[in-house]
Design goal:
This protein has 103 residues and is mainly β. The chain is 0% helix and 34% strand. The chain is built from no helices and eight strands. The strands form two sheets. Strands 6-7-1-2-5-8 form a six-stranded antiparallel β-sheet, with no helix packed on it. It has a two-stranded antiparallel sheet with strand order 3-4. The radius of gyration is 17 Å and the shape is elongated.
Length: 103
């Protein structure tokens, strides 16, 4: 007999790359009107899921990223590499591509 085992996968970014889960699209306005999903823009906010170890300069010094897991960040409208992990859509960005940290 075969047994089915659920395997949870994780992704550890290399270098200065950062794995981000974008915020959910808002499909309802504050007044309660539902918007069609085609007309809703991708949100420019996200949550850091994983952070790479950093990047080395020509002297060999390691420069670690300024972000940590769980930080809220402001993202550019376009860019990033779409990655699917455990049927969840996430994006990989370089640290330089992220616009800022939301506090």
């Amino acid at each position: 007999m075969f047994r089915t085992v659920a395997i949870a996968r994780s992704l550890a970014p290399f270098g200065d790359r950062i794995l981000i889960r974008r915020a959910a699209k808002e499909v309802q306005t504050s007044s309660g009107i539902y918007l069609p999903t085609d007309s809703v823009k991708n949100p420019n906010e996200g949550e850091v899921v994983a952070v790479g170890p950093g990047i080395r300069d020509v002297s060999g010094n390691l420069h670690t990223p300024n972000l940590q897991k769980g930080d809220s960040v402001l993202l550019p409208e376009y860019g990033g590499t779409k990655v699917t992990v455990d049927s969840e859509e996430m994006f990989l960005y370089r640290e330089d591509d992220i616009l800022g940290k939301l506090e």
